[in-house]
Amino acid sequence: MGQRHIETAVQYLTSGAHCTEDIIDVLHAMWREGIGPAHDGIGRNDLEDELGVDLEYEPKTVLDDNAVQIGLVDQDPEDSEDLTSYIIAEWRPDDDGIVNGEVDEAATEAIDAIIDHIHATDPGSDTTAVADGGVTHRDVLSDAFGIDEPAAVEARLRRGDLVSNVNTAVEAIEDSDAVTTRNDYDEFSFRYEGYSYSLSNLAVELYQL
Predict the structure, then answer these.
(1) pTM above 0.70, yes or no
(2) In this structure, CATH architecture of domain 2-83+195-207
(3) Do residues 199 and 31 touch, judged by C-beta distance below 8 A?
(4) Residue (of 181, 201, 156, 202) closest to 91 by Cα position
């Protein structure tokens, strides 16, 4: 009986949306698996595998744009501003590279490594990686940061938003055909915790009718 109430509610509340069957399949699967208000929820990317459903529409369409909107599925957190974000420095020796709380330290380390690489490829350096007169890291980064005086590259790298400076420098080096990066620095990347989804109290009440 409860499943019939859910199906009727979905049809009514979505005004017969194209993804109605997908919504119903997801709700029934959540109910079978016990993914209710007390559950930690399920991630959007894990939806089909963990629930054993084959969706015609994208999970975001089924969940965020419909099931959540009609109050039959809860989204946690409710506001995107409450999603946890992670800053990743994959070149660091830590297993996961997450540097939340250590961003300034990691950025400074990367800037130091980039500057060391600049010095290593300056013409006349003992460890120069290019022949005198060739394009160097200093040349590439002078162009990337719009610096007229190449000797000012180091000071520019240490000024302003260091994370942005690291990313700009790495992108410029990687885009260049003349120079390469090293493995002791790289771009910072950003990852955001995904939403989790579970049946709402309303959905549970309908299933229990």
Answers:
(1) no
(2) Orthogonal Bundle (1.10)
(3) yes
(4) 181
